[in-house]
Amino acid sequence: MPGFLKNADTFRDKGVDVIAVVAANDPFVMSGWGRVEGVKDKIVCLSDTDAAWSAKMGLSLDLSSRGMGLRTARYALIINDLKIEYIGVDSAPGVTVSGAEAILAKL
Question: With a threshold of 0.85, does the pTM exceed it?
Fold first, then answer.
């Protein structure tokens, strides 16, 4: 989230209406995370509590073997007029194709 927060104005300048972060946490955790990060009106923190939405999109990760259940994968989408134009999924630890810089390069 820090890269998106840092570049929020650049995203807006490129015509992005909404920057949203989705995670398999409850709304209270997402709200708290947003407050701690200081997102204010720059990022919307969305709850995909049981990762059902992410799973339907093929963007979930089963971490049951680690006691964490189904989680959202680390991914980024560019959605334009309700059409997905870009999907970047990071398969290894770290942020590459789902990071703010990668998304800015795709806009």
Answer: yes
